[in-house]
Write a structure and sequence with these properties.
This protein is of the alpha+beta class. It has three helices and twelve strands.
């Protein structure tokens, strides 16, 4: 299969895998805020608690995250769809929208997230045209919001097939 055709087929196939939607934020040594939208995010280990997120090497914020000692992952609810799209755009002031506060390290914290994971950088790996950032979770907070789901290049909400039993 020609490379361009394989790339298109791969992207189409991967769009069939639903994922959550996150915004990842950090602050650089000069105090400037940086952030991006990521659907390539997952738990790596519960002990120690590790997560990973993937960032395009072409992203404007890539140098800031490559040097960052820590960052924050925000798992988004459906009402933050427009903000997720905004954070995925190039050349915009990403923090001109949304309600952000700061943690003691100066990282931007998004109000109204489903969950917030504050992470210390533990490893970085090359992964094709992306960098794989691994962080140890130092603070984790979950809220009652339902998460947005990204599937077939669109945003969706969860519809449970059944309710979990109380013992789950």
């Amino acid at each position: 299969m020609p490379a361009e055709e394989l790339t298109d087929s791969f992207r189409h196939a991967m769009s069939a895998f639903p994922s959550g939607v996150t915004i990842v934020t950090t602050v650089d040594a000069e105090g400037k805020w940086w952030g991006f939208t990521a659907t390539s995010f997952c738990s790596v280990s519960p002990d120690p608690p590790l997560v990973l997120v993937c960032l395009s090497v072409d992203a404007q914020c890539h140098p800031a995250f490559s040097a960052a000692r820590s960052w924050v992952v925000h798992i988004l609810p459906p009402q933050h769809r427009d903000l997720a799209l905004w954070f995925s755009a190039k050349g915009v002031d990403k923090f001109s929208r949304g309600e952000f506060t700061t943690n003691p390290q100066g990282h931007p914290l998004l109000e109204g997230a489903c969950a917030v994971l504050e992470c210390e950088a533990t490893a970085r790996y090359g992964g094709g045209d992306h960098s794989i950032l691994v962080g140890e979770v130092t603070e984790a907070r979950a809220y009652d919001e339902e998460p947005a789901v990204y599937f077939r290049r669109g945003f969706h909400t969860l519809t449970p097939l059944f309710e979990p039993s109380p013992s789950s």
